[in-house]
Specification:
single chain; 3 helices; globular; mainly alpha; about 50 residues
Length: about 50
Amino acid sequence: MAKKYTDEFRRAAVRMAATSSLTCPQLSSDSGVDVSTLNKWGNNTSTRRGRC
């Protein structure tokens, strides 16, 4: 069963990816969200297109 994340959590994860110097795998590990999911969330916003 897929995990459900709040919109607030998703926005925070995308913001962290946009402003952090961490790599995508590090962000994934720290947040508990798969890299592909972070990428999908980021591609749905204009702030971080293509970061992960």
